[in-house]
Amino acid sequence: MGDDRFSFPACVIAGKRRLDVDDLLMLRKHAFSDGIRTEDDAHLLLAIHRACASSCPQWDCYVIESIAAYAVNRQHPRGWLDATNADWLIETLSVDNVVLSPLELEIILHALDMATSAPEHLSAFALDQMRYGLAPNSSNAYALSRPSRNPGIDLNDLHYLWRVLRSACESGRLVLSTIERDVLQAIDAIAEPRLHHTGWNTLIASLHLRPTNPKNDRSAWLQVQDETLPEKSHQAA
């Protein structure tokens, strides 16, 4: 999106080499004085961010918190994510179901943190970003934000997983939907088992399934046998 398609103050900000605190203050004062209230507001904020090469931490926090808060607290139903809002997040923040920007992946995670509940296909989608990120030579959001290129599942991967699945713990057990379980097993198949953190093997061995309604299965985006990933070379633990 070119600068000439933005109105003031976005036209002044969009396309800058680096977004700083002054840009943030200008935008909040003149464009979003009441916060992100509509879908158009959300798309405008993301367009400005995407048009700039880099940004300060304060700007990044504002984008993450504003878009996540819009999805959870401005859209209906308020306080939680339904299938429609989850699909909006996926469509808005991914390309061909892959999130490319670490900041935009963090928006999804922050929305999951904020929401009192969320559809299982959104958490499965977030887990699937981990699967893409573990593929050799991957450059998706998860791969870019991962501290190491360890081909096994490490402690940072487990922290990500537990953040996504924090609401799936029931009486000390990890109780998942079928699509969540399928993504974890696909991750187990692609990662190098010799280098796994012991916590991963314990987790895979203790999965429990939650009864699901086939009519609610929205996992068409999940392609476990993705041709971009190597073929399964060992059995899931």
Strands ordered across the widest β-sheet: 3-4-5
- Please work out how many helical segments DSSP would assign: 11
Helix content estimate: 40-55%
Radius of gyration: 19 Å
Please explain how this structure is put together.
The structure is a single chain. The chain is mainly alpha-helical and 237 residues long. The chain has two domains: 1-74, no CATH class; 91-237, no CATH class. Helix content is 50%, strand content 5%. The strands form two sheets. It has a three-stranded mixed sheet with strand order 3-4-5. It has a two-stranded parallel ribbon with strand order 1-2. A hairpin with a 2-residue loop joins strand 3 and strand 4. It starts with 9 loop residues before the first helix and ends in a 28-residue tail after the last strand. The model is unreliable at 227-237 (pLDDT under 50).
List keywords for this structure.
237 residues, three-stranded mixed β-sheet, single chain, 5% strand, mainly alpha, globular
